[in-house]
C-alpha cells in the first residue's frame, strides 16, 4: 500500500481543531472538526463530487470520491458551492 505524503492532501479547515476523533469510546466513524461559521472548506484530496445538497442529519452535505474508492464527507455547511460531477 502506498503511503499518502503530505503534499498529496490538505487539511479541510485550516485553523480549526478536532472536537471528536475517529474511533474512541463512541466508535465514531469520522472526525468532527470545529471552526467558525462560513469558513472555507478544502477538499482533503483531489476527487469528484458525488453528493451536494441537504442530507438527513448532516444539513448541507458534500461527498467527494477520491482515488481507490476512498470518500470524504463534509457536513453542516451554510451553503454548498459545488455540484455533483465537479472536480
Write structural notes for this entry.
With 87 residues, this protein is mostly beta strands. 0% of the residues lie in helices and 33% in strands. It is built from no helices and five strands. The strands form two sheets. Strands 3-4-5 form a three-stranded antiparallel beta sheet, with no helix packed on it. The two termini are 25 Å apart. The model has no long low-confidence stretch (mean pLDDT 84).
A few lines on this structure:
The protein has no helices and five strands.
What is the element layout, followed by pairings?
Layout: E1 17-20, E2 32-34, E3 48-55, E4 59-65, E5 71-77
Antiparallel strand pairs: 1-2, 3-4, 4-5
Number of strands: 5
The helix-and-strand class reads mainly beta
* Average pLDDT figure: 84
Major sheet characteristics:
3 strands, antiparallel
Strand portion: 25-35%
- Major sheet: arrangement of strands: 3-4-5
Q: What form results from the Cα inertia axes?
A: globular
* Distance N to C terminus: 25 Å
Q: For the CA atoms, what is the radius of gyration? A: 13 Å
Q: Which properties best describe this structure?
A:
single chain; 87 residues; mainly beta; 3-stranded antiparallel β-sheet; globular
Amino acid at each position: 500500500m502506498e503511503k499518502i505524503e503530505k503534499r498529496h492532501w490538505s487539511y479541510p479547515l485550516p485553523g480549526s481543531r478536532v472536537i471528536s476523533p475517529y474511533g474512541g469510546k463512541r466508535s465514531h466513524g469520522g472526525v468532527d472538526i470545529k471552526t467558525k461559521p462560513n469558513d472555507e472548506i478544502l477538499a482533503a484530496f483531489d476527487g469528484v463530487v458525488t453528493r451536494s445538497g441537504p442530507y438527513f442529519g448532516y444539513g448541507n452535505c458534500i461527498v467527494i470520491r477520491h482515488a481507490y474508492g476512498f470518500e470524504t464527507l463534509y457536513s453542516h455547511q451554510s451553503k454548498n458551492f459545488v455540484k455533483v460531477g465537479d472536480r
